[in-house]
Write a structure and sequence with these properties.
With 321 residues, the chain is α/β, with parallel strands linked by helices. The strands form 4 sheets. A 7-stranded mixed beta sheet has the order 6-5-4-3-2-1-18. The chain has a 7-stranded mixed beta sheet with strand order 7-8-9-14-15-16-17, covered by helices on one side. The chain has a two-stranded antiparallel ribbon with strand order 10-13. The longest helix is centred in the last third of the chain and has 14 residues. The protein is globular, with a radius of gyration of 22 Å. It starts with 9 loop residues before the first strand and ends with a helix. The mean pLDDT is 94.
Amino acid sequence: MAEGNCGDGMYLKVLGCGSAMPKPLHQHSAQMLRLRDKNFLIDCGEGTQMQLLRFGATWANLHRIFITHMHGDHCLGLPGLLSSMSMSGLDHPVHVYGPEGIDEYIDFILKTFCREDADRIFAHVVDHTQKGVVYEDHSITVTSFPLKHRIATVGYRFDEKPKPRHLNREMADFYGVPVAYFGLIKRGEDFVREDGTVIKNDLITFAPRTPYSYAYCSDTAYFSSVPEAVRGVDLLYHETTFGAAMERRANETLHSRSVDAARVAAEAGVGHLLIGHYSARYSNRAMVQELLLETKELFPRTIAAEDGMTIDFQALRDKLQ
């Protein structure tokens, strides 16, 4: 996922997909989502900055970081990452979002490691009790929603905004649409001639592609409100810490099993499911493959996360054709 090589698409880089105890194959939770010229870091477990370097990603255009909860395997990478960004000459604001405790944590990091950039790094406390928009600009909306874990935890949904329609220049010329009206036409308006004849917009434009969408569910037991919060996304990441047989342990720790992740994906009608946050028990690819097969029995369009994996959202859509 090199800089300047993503064009118009949405791409996900998995930086780490392990749980509390990292293993050589699976580092702590962290993902980089890229939409055109924007990078969004989701969770920042220990070693995230090294994973960025290892897999050719960058923090050069990283303005927003979304933390799901204040357990170490999801946020202990922040001091190192923000300190390195500060030392490298931070020239843009960085906004860090997370549930209760994120403000105190960022304040500690600023006072200890990033004093010179205290006016460029900002913490935003997210309400973990209800769904709500936490960030929005002209191209994307980021919404948080509650998860069910041992401490305040949120998931995040990233929805690309619809793009303008594409002008069909040949048909626009055929119907005599003046250049001055092209902007209005791209925004979906019909063209009305001086004699009152209405040229419908769909005759002189092409529809843009459907906007991409992604949802990230970190540590959580099955929670009945989650399927609605992630409904219809192209790709759902849902933690899969345990296999189906480990129901008791999952209930004790408020984590999900393979069957729980599959259940959410099926109920939400998502395009594809990405599983991860594997327990240290699943320390090799053969064991992860067992989790994948369990999940696919209930939701066939499942992918097993691997550190360094890049997912092209358009390629996912093409598989559904």
